[in-house]
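fold-stage: in
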Amino acid sequence: MTQMKGIGIYRYLPIDDPESLQDVVVEKPVPQGRDLLVNVKAVSVNPVDAKVRAPKDRTEASPRVLGWDAAGVVEAVGDDCTLFKPGDAVYYAGSIARAGSNSEFQLVDERIVGRKPLNLDFAEAAALPLTAITAWEGLFDRLAVSRDRERNAGKTILIIGAAGGVGSIATQIAKDAGLTVIGTASRPESAQWARDHGADHIIDHRQPFAAQLQALGFAHVDYIFCLNLTEQHWANMAEAIAPQGKICSIVETAELLDLTLLKNKSVTFAWELMFTRALYQTPDMIEQHRLLNQVADKLESGELRTTLTERMAPINAANLRKAHAKVESGSTIGKIVLERFE
């Protein structure tokens, strides 16, 4: 049995507990079917990592490895693989139903893997997959934004939480699609980051939306992409959205949402979870492979750029606990990436 290094959890503990994430040794997996075995070079940390790790009354008999953003090199492939071969550099988010990327090697279905952009190093690439998939699916699949820039001329999108991980790439993709992008931010540094990444205008999500939009000359917006506190912004979104507009959120809520607020305007509401395709093995799983390759094309052409803001090394439990704590603070801009196992 070949072993590998990883970071795992046995108990679900507060991040300031040194046992919340631990350095472990686990069995190196073997690829079968359409799985790639990837030698992980860099990983990034997302809110989902902190949510899964958050304290709960549960224990694991063997260490559970988290992590859903990685870039690395294909080590081996299953018998049914056709998209990649050993030696290929890749980036991907993976499946929440499987062992994560916080280990030296990881199995991932090739249908949800993209080729690593040639102009990015592994850390720069690892910052992008989960957020890029979320943004792409949210914009083009859930909100049904046209891919034709001319058809989007004059149309507006409000991105709530424009400086976060998803917001940082969503603003770029929306701007690239030809939309007028209005981002929300509550601090000068996050507002500037959002502007630098494609936002045409900024409003404060701590204040009512409608008056701020009207001050900018917008009676309403055609699309809203909510990346922060759905229930807190619900009434503001219902007021700001245009008749027959569309709203998409990625943030679950413990409170009931009053959908009748959307009825008179015939507004569409949709959820986006980038794990859906892999979790349910949908017939169109390969769309994530395709969209990651399209994102790679746009990164190489300069139409999009990485959202990495902080590098940490090496990949170990101590550094991962620091990264989780920063993500849990809710004030991070862009993405935190860890690189290199030692």
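fold-stage: in (second)
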Amino acid sequence: MHLLFSSDEVAPGEGLAVLDELYTTSEHPMRMLAPAPEKFRATVRSLDLAAVNVVELTASPSEVVRTPRLVRQADPELSSVLVPLRGRVGLGQAGREAVLGPRELALYDSSRPFELRLAPGGEGAALLRAHVPRALLDLPAGRLDRLLGTALDGRAGVGGLLTQFLTGTAAGSAAYSTADLARLGTVALDLLRAVLAHHLDAEDAVPDDSHRRTLLLRIEAFVQRNLHEPQLSPAAIAAAHHISVSHLHRLFEGRDTTVAAWVRRQRLQRARRDLADPALGTVPVHHIAARWGFNDHSTFTRAFRGAYGMPPREYRRSSALR
């Protein structure tokens, strides 16, 4: 593998800024962030196996972030498989979160925002990631979306073969000829296809009711994380989970409520909790409303009165007297 970056080769304290610049100006723009920029340490090595690009990243606690703006700026339409080598790595994409240890796998996609968290709360991490043009996987994008941001087994079966191949190939790269690299790229692509097909087949074998419950749990977790967003509408929720709005409404048919009403109830419950909290007694009511996605104070007051029988200010006063 050839060296792309080393914090040992730049001025002390400037490693994060240099690597961030390298990433933001690449064909696949991302940001490199760290809680302690002055202490940031990293090494990046790369190996091209024909159409498959393998990168080894070793870094102190940090994040690699691809925002919606960076997706719009440039999208090379890549699918990427992530293999932690040391420490723990968190991946967030498509409304899902996975925390990976060594010999686990995860898939992410350049066409959607994502976050990679290296050794959150730890001392550092190392990982391999392999980029491949999505078109070469010969799998519908809609099916691949089901695997984004989920932990996949990289210790046994075809997943184990892929992790062994990628780690072994990276370790022995100094001995490869140009022809070797092309052949190894074909093997890497075939193994990645096999891993993805294996997991998609397994998902297809799960009963529809189990799929429905799993999807509902993902949607509920997504809503809870994003209650503060005023734009959290049924359309936004459906788009984040790559389903139609009508499909989303069908998922809620057995709950005797609509999606919008359920989201509003979750927001109101959070606001009521804050209004009853003595520690938040000096926070203006309209700030609490905005905190939970209500930009219009009169709308919040009407909704709160309808749900709890009194306006929010009166509820706060009555809670303080208990």
